[in-house]
Fold these 4 entries.
Entry 1:
Amino acid sequence: MMKRVCVWMILLVISVAGSAMAQQVAVVVDRANVRSGPGTDHDILWTVGKYYPLEVIKSSEDWYQGRDFEGDIGWIFHSLVKEIPSVVVKAPLVNVRKGPGTDFRVLFQAEKGVSFKMLASQKEWLKIEHADGEVGWIHRSLVWGR
């Protein structure tokens, strides 16, 4: 009985560690198609913009299968993404601020699904940059990715 419990604990630790270390990639072009399979002959499921993060599930030749912040799964060509820190807004509408805290003024707002490159972090705040060059700070709880 004790041996069975130890085996289950080891498997649990491995699965948690594996998911914590999952590879994340981000789109590095202005627009990229996410497809139903690994190839241009597969349907386009949705289109994403620069810095959009995807958690890599597996790869097939030159394609990555990835999961987005809503749990949707699709395929993207490898040259359209790189391993750069990025996040996507998961709340309906968020404030992007001048500094890392609510006492800093709001520079602009971002809607759910808007992606950013992550430049730095300070406690629970992330310094982010949009594809159009706008830079600001956002609270970590409002975004998905790393």
Entry 2:
Amino acid sequence: MDEFFVQGVVGGVLNRHKNRTLDKNRIATLSVEIAANIDRATQFTDVKATAAENPLNIKMWKGYDGIEKPYEKEYLDYWKCDLCGEHTHEVDYDYLGNNRNHLKCELEHENAYNEHLDKGKQMEIKFTEDE
């Protein structure tokens, strides 16, 4: 769908309601009216509504020359796990911990640290009778 087409439809609806205050009910009414106007307007125009009808092409983006380049060293160094040293640039955000580290590495590090603290608590401190 063309950006200017949608802007025109939305602008027309907002123009009709420009002297009214907006509250939750008014916003809901506007969204329904905008959707209805877009649906109605697409019946009379040759607007392609789905991605299958209007596929995007990467060549439309500025600066793309069609040559896939390897990642730069600075980029890979930025996306590097501090704990294991592997790159995390292709890891989903759900599996990243603090500072771009693997969540698994963070948890293993925390468990090892907690075990270290627990060993210290198990040591008994014995005082001599002189003290």
Entry 3:
Amino acid sequence: MALSNEMKQIAIDLINQFGSTAILKKPSSSNYDIASGTNIVIAGTQTTHKAHIESYSSEEIKGLVQSGDIRILVATIDSISVSKDKIIFNDIEYNIINVEPIIMQDTVIAYTLQVRR
């Protein structure tokens, strides 16, 4: 476990030093409160993260990966909703298509996001 925590910190340090800025946009949501009979609105948020951003190679463009998709490596996000959350990079908003955790010794070190315009 100690090694995985060290690796996570190394990933965070490297991405913070050499990464680009990306914004995770979580939309507003609402939950119905049965007791009060009202909708409770939870405001959307935007958080800034450092990320390593790269295009997929031509060999990787098949199946779920389409031409124009981008791979983003980020180590400081706690939770991501593929169906609702968005990533903003260079003032362009991307849909999150797939999220893959990078795991070492049962600890998530970082996430690889596949995003699409």
Entry 4:
Amino acid sequence: MNHNTRFLAVATLALTSAHGLGQGAMGGNRNDTGPRGQPPKVENVATAAPVIKAGEQVTLKGKLKGGLVAIGGETTGWQLAYAKDKGAATLEVDMQAIKDAESLDGAEVTITGSIFSKQYVERGAVLILKAATVVASATKKGP
């Protein structure tokens, strides 16, 4: 086995382990199947937390973070981390309409605005919340 083949084998093993591939039919933990080898029972996606869609008006509460950068400048520079029914989520935020937006960096906020989709070259389609109003909560800003 030459160096390139060995590297490929190690990289493939690392990827399959990290993403749960290589389970079931490829050996390892067989808990990914139901009775008699049937696929596992999957939660009905329709009953999961609501999905945010382009064109919707929303109000979200969470922690606002600014100063973000991305390859090719493919970001608004702002992100809201908020809670959903099934855990945490993040959403990119367009803060252009907000005066003194920098003062809100790191704050717990309530943002009202509309969702739109932007097509980036590298990132593809990304949902963005175009902030109309941002209100900081009474709690202190985090680090």
